[in-house]
Amino acid sequence: MVEALYPVPADWAQNALIDETRYQEKYARSIDDPEGFWAEEAQRIDWIKPFSVVKQTSFDEADFGISWFTDGTLNLSANALDRHLATRGDQVAILFEPDDPTTGERRITYRDLHAQVCRFANLLKARGVRKGDRVTIYLPMVPEAAVAMLACARIGAIHSIVFAGFSPDALAGRITDCDSSIVLTADQGLRGGKRVPLKANVDEALKDCPGVGTVIVLAHTGADVPMVEGRDIDWAAGVAGQSADCEPVEMAAEDPLFILYTSGSTGKPKGVLHTTGGYSVWASMTHEYVFDYRPGQIYWCAADIGWVTGHSYVVYGPLMNGATTVMFEGVPSYPDASRFWQIVDKFEVEIFYGAPTALRALMREGDDFVKATSRKSLRLLGSVGEPINPEAWSWYYNVVGEGRCPIVDTWWQTETGGVMITPLPGATALKPGSASKPMFGVKPMLLDGEGKEITGAGEGCLVVAGSWPGQMRTVWGDHERFFQTYFSTFKGFYFTGDGCRRDEDGYYWITGRIDDVINVSGHRMGTAEIESALVAHHKVAEAAVVGMPHEIKGQGIYAFVTTNVGVEADEDLRRELVKWVRHEIGPIATPDVIQFAPGLPKTRSGKIMRRILRKIGENDFSNLGDTSTLADPSVVDNLIANRPQPA
Ligand code: WTA
């Protein structure tokens, strides 16, 4: 197969911050002389006290540790706000586009944002929040979410954002895990004209969280929500009396910045912890180079702040770089499938960064919705969260970008803090579907099942050799799990959980997760999490969940369910279980297929053979492999014979 190659456009090669030669030079230096490279790159941050040590990192069990810029001190909110005031105080920092296109647009300057952050930080302090305390944020995509993040960073509190689509149960689990005593929320969220009962969800969650003493509630839709005396505070009333000055707290580089829960291959989501110094350098640097970003350009990352992309590329990276960053509350299809491109026109967005799942959904609606808009402001497009299939890539490139905007297909993870493998628009010829080349300081490697390095072209498990500043530092409350999850499979390397191919030109092609994690609409989910939700239902004896190919979502959720004896496995139960999972985790975990299974394929030692279930999920029975080690091989025939066809 001949792969299409899109050379770097001449104007990009000429004008970009990084052209091909610079990329080669800088990359080589970052690998050969990391100390020198990072000492220089870190100068993009205003340090309160400069660091003298660049890095102390080891992935080996004996002296395991990850520490960057250790003796330096800084404050991220000062880097995102205060230092811009003299030069760009009146520049718009956040352009807010509400769910309803007709009302509520906001343009918040750096000066305004600074004042709002200080006031809110003072309110947090007044409620007893101190450096190191955990603050749970359960807010819709509104500017106050960014205000809350930056206010936490300002006073050294650790924020933990929980995606506003998660259920009360999921929220409660995350509040409890990090022992957070304060929750920030809104009366309701708005998505595609529908109201999301955020405050009601918090009330429900807090029945299981006796440690929460303060809930700050943003009146967003103005709905009448019950307030608990002494615990609940109205956001506006709370900040009203606060001073617009709040001294940023001096943070050590390795002081925690935020926790973000993400799914792994075991049941309980992990609290990924990022720290202040390394993350700041990494988020700012990657944002600048990946998007060839110059201060003041209008930039839009369409991710939700509930995910890491929202942290690094809606809020922190852009604001550190003096950007005008767009925040969009709604969904791509509301009021119609033109919405994204209407926003692009309205704000004259130059750089747009989105997810393949949204593109696939829009692509299905036809080109007219795109062509009804101008998009002439667009210069660069980005993709994140999952592999982008060549059809979606080419639609994005040709229809949305009219063939003139490079696409940066960025591979990274919650754990990596920022982009790890990506084309750079002025440096890398594009191959549709390939995340291309490593970011500065990143040394990807492919290993085979035995841990042997695959050199040249080949396919294997993707690992990273050596640390980079934006790397997560621990799993909150479980450092051992951190080591076990990422550093024990292949000794001395960070294991990503992804499979990957490298071609003759050294381009990387992510092939998807090789662990029990699935990627549904760009949202990462542990199959074990969905299984434990299912078995928590009183009619379910056992459940196994696998991913299945899905045209829009990339992967869908396929659940095999064995019911308890005497339970009628019918359509009603199917509906009940779908509802149950949505209730336990949230709508993003809605199973696409539930297959009732009298038995699951197990080895004689009782281990479920997921390989076989995955094949059945894929509707591919040709290659089931060796089933002779199964305790009861007839189970498989039964599953195949009764496979329901998805609607
Ligand atoms: C997948 C999102 C292919 C991958 C930033 C990874 C991708 C997981 C890409 C992390 C991409 C992300 N191409 N796959 N460009 N970007 N992934 O933690 O499987 O939500 O391990 O971080 O998404 O998902 P997470």
Automatic annotation (TrEMBL):
Q: Which residues form the AMP-binding enzyme C-terminal domain?
A: 529-607
Co-factor(s): Mg(2+)
Modified residue annotations for N6-acetyllysine: K607
Q: Which residues form the Acetyl-coenzyme A synthetase N-terminal domain?
A: 23-80
EC numbers on record = 6.2.1.1
Domain AMP-dependent synthetase/ligase positions: 82-468
Residues recorded as binding Mg(2+), renumbered to this chain, are: V535, H537, V540
Task: Tell me what reaction this enzyme catalyses.
Answer: acetate + ATP + CoA = acetyl-CoA + AMP + diphosphate
Q: Where are the transmembrane segments?
A: none
Task: Tell me the keywords, alphabetical order.
Answer: Acetylation, ATP-binding, Ligase, Magnesium, Metal-binding, Nucleotide-binding
Summarize what the UniProt record says about post-translational modification: Acetylated. Deacetylation by the SIR2-homolog deacetylase activates the enzyme.
Class of enzymatic activity (EC top level)? ligase
Pfam family membership, one: ACAS_N
**NCBIfam families per the UniProt record, alphabetical:** Ac_CoA_lig_AcsA, PRK00174.1
Similarity-based family: Belongs to the ATP-dependent AMP-binding enzyme family.
- Name by which UniProt lists this protein: Acetyl-coenzyme A synthetase
List the source organism.
Novosphingobium organovorum
